[in-house]
Amino acid sequence: MTSIDTITLDVTDVAAAERFYATAFGLDDRLRLRASREPSTGFRGFTLTLTVAQPADVNALVDAAVDAGATVLKPAAKSLWGYGGVVQAPDGTIWQIAGTAKKDTGPATGRIEQVVLLLGVSDVAASKRFYVGRGLTVAKSFGRMYVEFDSGSGPVKLALYRRRALAKHAGVSPDGTGSHRIAIGAAVEPWTDPDGFAWETTALATTS
């Protein structure tokens, strides 16, 4: 089974991005940053989700992100599946902050339970076959709409979603061109998936 070790974001200003993420989320070694000026316009085809226990934690993270310079794409609110909001970091990365609980059981803990990388793909079934062929194990699958893989001991969970549906869920247009500006680090030989998302060996992915 292949598990994700790190996520690397390509940013134009590493120092500014480091300040933002340290202040907003404190993701330690799960998130890497490196300098890149590859062109990218519109939706980059992915979101990162921080799952937390309760609404108080969602609100605390959204507020911290906004105070650090993020833009709110969807205000935190209740939904059929729980409670969450969406923000866009100054570097352009879209972050969903979400929890399944709709009521608080106590004060905010500041604890992030899981990081989920959601890739917006053109054909969920085809991408699922590709990733299974690369050694990932399916944990959940809902037809051609959504697939979630077993993260094993890795700190980041991978899931696939239809690109247009993911953009709608994030509150942005699905249109976008250029680099995804993200690299997925794992103990694998480098590869690129059918939608152009690059996987790198962990040693490469952690090099700034």
TrEMBL record:
Instruction: From the UniProt annotation, give the residues forming the signal peptide.
Output: none
UniProt keywords (A-Z) are:
Lyase
Task: Specify the protein name.
Answer: Putative lactoylglutathione lyase
Q: Name one GO molecular function term.
A: lyase activity
The species is Saccharothrix australiensis
Q: Which SUPFAM superfamilies would you find in this protein's record?
A: Glyoxalase/Bleomycin resistance protein/Dihydroxybiphenyl dioxygenase
